[in-house]
Structure formats: C-alpha cells, structure tokens
Amino acid sequence: MADKYKIIGPLYDFLNVVYGGKQFHKCKTAMNNDLKADDTILFAGVGHGRDAIDAAERGAKVTVVDLSATMLKNVEKNLKGKNFKHPIRLVHSDIFEFNEVGEYDQVVANFFLNVFPEDFMFKVMQHLATMVKPDGHFVVGDFHYPSGNILSKAFQNVYWYIAVGIFTVFAKNAFHKIYDYPKHIEAMGFKVTKSEDVNVLFVPALWSMKAQRKEVIKPQQKDVA
Ligand SMILES: C[S@@+](CC[C@H](N)C(=O)[O-])C[C@H]1O[C@@H](n2cnc3c(N)ncnc32)[C@H](O)[C@@H]1O
User: Fold this and answer.
1) Residue 19: which CATH number?
2) Is any atom of ligand 1 closer than 6 Å to the C-beta of 204?
3) From CA 225, how far away is CA 120, in angstroms rounded?
C-alpha cells in the first residue's frame, strides 16, 4: 500500500512546532501524567512518537502502530540512544488489522481520528475502544471543537482548516469540519472523565480528553466532565 506520509512524514514534527510551538506536544502528552509504571498503552497512528516516548519514560509498556513506514522510521530515529524499563514495541500495520482486544490500560488516538471521514472515524474509534481493558481509558488529543465567543470559534476553525488543507493535499487525509469527539465518545458508551484545553495564541485550539466505559465509572466521577 502507498505510504501517504512519504512526502510530509519527514517534516511532520517540524510542522507541529512551526504551527503550534510546544503546544502540540503538550496536548499529546496531557493524559500521560496519570500513567503508572507497567501500564500497557497503545498509540494508534503514532506518527513520530514523542508522546509514546514520554509514556515509555514513565515506565509504561508501550506499543505503537502506524501504517506509514516513513512515520515509523522517524520513531526509530527519535528512539536512538534511549533506554526504558520496557522497550517500545513498533508495529507496522493498518489499525484495523491490529486486534489486541481488552489488552490496554490506555489506548491513545492523538491527531489520528481526524485523518478519516466522519462515518469511518466512528468505526475507527469503536475498533480502538475494543482494545481498552474493561476499566481502562480511551484518550483522544486533537483540534478543539469550536467553542466560546465568535472570535474564538473563528480562530479554531481557521486553525483547523489550514492544517486539514495541507494534510488533504500532501497526505490525502479527509477534508471535513472539526469533529465533536466528546459527542462521539458518549455515543460509544464511554464518558469523558478528564479534559484539558491547550491554548494557541490564548485560544483553546487543541484539547485532550480521557474517557472510561460508563458502567465502570464510580458515582462521584460521573459529574467530572
Ligand atoms: C496526522 S498523523 C498523527 C500522528 C501522531 N499521532 C501525532 O499525534 O502527531 C496520522 C497518523 O496516522 C497514521 N495512519 C493513518 N491511517 C492509518 C491506519 N489505517 N492505520 C494505522 N495508522 C494510520 C499515519 O501514517 C500518520 O502517522
């Protein structure tokens, strides 16, 4: 299968920094803080993997999956000279061919779901959810759904459409509006228990959220999100 990230892949981390300074990394690692040593964590569509490296540095057992050989080469580059309690496991695969059901304390989709058209994105989300342990967490980091006053919404939309425009041209990603991830997470039977906004130029342009299956959430947690 053609590697859609062959052209833009090598520039991916650089573009993140140019476009958002340290804020993309902040968003991608926001939910790593609660990880415990030996937790199992999956990064789907990992890209260059700095978020996965952060998790491995915390002692987690990390698996990363990506369809792009270019992206995985960059993970290997970023891994050079690093040693962890548990070495990171790299898997070159379409996420739909990766089926480790109920294996992970945390399944992470950072800037991954936005690659797909909406109906397909929901299927990807459901597939990822199957790999979360019964009491585990599903994490999504991505562009913030438009919120706040008119200026804030305008900024969030422009910020997204510039990014998606570039990735539609260079990586053939789907061109679509910003997804309302909490709504989709709820529809899947999960509840967002923690959410963090990440500002770009004082506007919440990115966000990260963590969700759990509704039936395992303790009553006092149900009011958090
Ligand atoms: C926009 S990048 C996000 C990379 C990274 N997670 C981040 O936060 O920067 C999307 C990634 O998903 C990968 N990808 C796209 N479709 C995939 C699929 N069906 N299975 C696995 N990985 C896929 C791409 O190769 C790319 O690395």
Assistant:
1) 3.40.50.150
2) no
3) 26
